[in-house]
Amino acid sequence: MTNFDRKRVVVTGLGAITPIGNNLTEYWEGLLEGRNGIAPITLFDASRHDCRIAGEVKGFDPHEYLDRKEAKRMDRFAQFGVSASKQAIADAKFVINELNAEQVGIVIGTGIGGLKVLEDQQEVFLTRGPDRCSPFMIPMMIANMAAGLTAIHTGAKGPNCCTVTACAAGSNAVGDAFRLIQRGYAQAMICGGTEAAVTPLSLAGFAACKALSTRNDDPARACRPFDRGRDGFVMGEGSGILILEELEYALSRGARIYAEIVGYGMTCDAYHITAPVPGGEGAVRAMRLAMKDAGITPEQVSYINAHGTSTPANDVTETAAIKNVLGESAAKVAVSSTKSMTGHLLGGSGGIEAVATVMAIANDRLPPTINLENPDPECDLDYVPHHSRSKTVEVALSNSFGFGGHNVTLAFKKYV
What we know:
Blueprint: E1 9-17, H1 24-33, E2 39-40, E3 53-54, H2 68-72, H3 76-92, E4 104-109, H4 115-128, H5 137-141, H6 145-154, E5 160-161, H7 169-182, E6 188-195, H8 200-208, E7 238-246, H9 247-252, E8 259-268, H10 281-294, E9 303-305, H11 312-326, E10 334-336, H12 339-342, H13 349-363, E11 365-366, E12 389-390, E13 395-402, E14 406-413
Parallel strand pairs: 4-5, 4-6, 9-10, 9-13
Antiparallel strand pairs: 1-7, 1-8, 2-3, 6-7, 8-14, 11-12, 13-14
Helix pairs in contact: 3-6, 7-13, 10-11
């Protein structure tokens, strides 16, 4: 398919349930304020764990979006995904009916899915026997259910799938949805990521591979991307959802347009199950592919929402990759890691970070990287430390990299 055959795709709605706010307004204001969402874990007793902090979603009431019977039959990750999708649909003032249902699709990614349900049901199995396991265990835990339930609750009958590419899952979902509209398979897509993996077993597993921060006595400053004192990532939970529409379809209904999505790059390191390839060769190719797809040059990039996990390996590798791709322009581009405030939502991170990137373009405001007190000498870019910044944002990239070597870059720009 040539560039002339491709349909233009725009962002018309946003939804967010995050550790710093349970709707778009709260989330965006929290980012601009540099609000910390990381605190001691309250979802379970974490006293035996090496890491006892996380970016939990606070005050979330699923019954604002779902009736009690429906909510009870969903894992928390699916509750987040369906609820954020309903927010985004309302924000876009988008109506799904019998006339357009078959042209509205859904791609919602997750890294882990309904792990809490699996943990709980394993306990039931061991203590009470196999015949006491819930008949809803499988449909509550399987990773595709956020996408499937969102379709059930919205009536969207178009393409529907779930990306499961670890911490790149949310960004893969947005990119795949972009491609489906671009190539004419749908007029609109509900897409993004969701995760609720702050559970005892998940926490123990990530801690066992030495990925997590153990700054338990200072949770507000535990997630410190690009800082010399970083000691691992902090888990988060939540969901970020975007409504993408084919441009002419959006214009025909008078939709407000936040930004245009113009590029998608996807690669694999083919190197290691958890560590990025030294120098970030896979990330370099993902960024270059997204920029080539978008037809943009290094000089045009205003802002990058970094993967920025606060791990020793990722932050140095991503910095090197950005410098490789942008060359002399790297010194001029603003880069920030919003994970410094939300923690790492795993498969949900690409969703909320795409929302943040789109809002940066729409508002010409850059969210900061908080806790950057002693920059790592190998991390020497402009990371928008401590405070948000006003800046005209014409073109922005959003990076997501996942275990298994998955690399995704999304490119957005102002709609004109």
